[in-house]
Amino acid sequence: MFSQQLALSVFSAGSLRTTITQIKSQLEQLSQRPITFTFGPAGLLSKNIQSGIHCDLFLSANMVHPQHLHSMTTMKNIMPFCHNSLCLTIARRHYQPHKTWLDYVSDPTLLLATSTPNCDPSGDYTWQLFDKIAQHNKPLSDYLKKTAQPLVGGINTLTIPTGYTAASFLIQHHNIDMFIGYSHYQSILARDPELMVIPIPAQDNIYATYGLAYNDDIALPIVNYLLSTSGQHYLQQAGFSSVHQTME
């Protein structure tokens, strides 16, 4: 057993919870320290770090928060470590094979939920997606920004129970018809008979870059693993894209 006094504090975006906790023992062996994980929306975690709460390694779902911490000299080292994108999940009862993702989000009879912008990068990416829609359909973009409900990932939003994704919880228990969230959840969502994942084509999608931040060498064994061939392969198995991969 490792000494608790030497515990390594890792703040991590909630979208990495399952992926990173599954290799906790391996990461502890690499670092030769016990690891304490704190999961949550990356924007809120960044604010906690700024307030002075100790963090040895910050795993963010974007590069904005690590870059901000770096600009404040709160974190000395930052770098990207994987990529993600977005997908639309709908209640299977609404599925029609001929419809595209834009057909669903354009339907005024369907309620759309998202994560919370400015608190959770998933929400920020979704609003970037709406901005992208504005390039060819500004009325639809304006409509989505007005009607989409940011129900998770904020300060006082719903807490997702263990065993659910945000999409599955909101659609099954909160009368939501569809949810825009991260693509790496697709394999989990596809196993749920009540849900249907609708891909968002690459040309319409948002390329999400995950970044890490750290100060001292205490975090280096984990950083090196995540950037290694083995670490990148593991992240790809979990549904993320390699940091070396570009969006097609």
* Helix proportion range: 25-40%
Major pleated sheet: 6 strands, mixed
Share in β-strands = 15-25%
Number of helices: 11
| Strand order in the sheet with the most strands | 2-1-3-10-4-11
Kindly report how far apart the N and C termini lie: 45 Å
**Element pattern in H and E:** EHHEHEHEEHEHHEHEHEEHHE
Find the count of extended strands (DSSP E, 2+ residues). Answer: 11
Low-confidence stretches: none
Rg computed from alpha carbons, rounded to a whole number of angstroms: 18 Å
SS-based class: alpha/beta
Q: Which whole number gives the mean pLDDT?
A: 95
Name the shape in a single word: globular
Which terms summarize this structure?
11 strands; 6-stranded mixed β-sheet; 5-stranded mixed β-sheet; 248 residues; alpha/beta; 23% strand
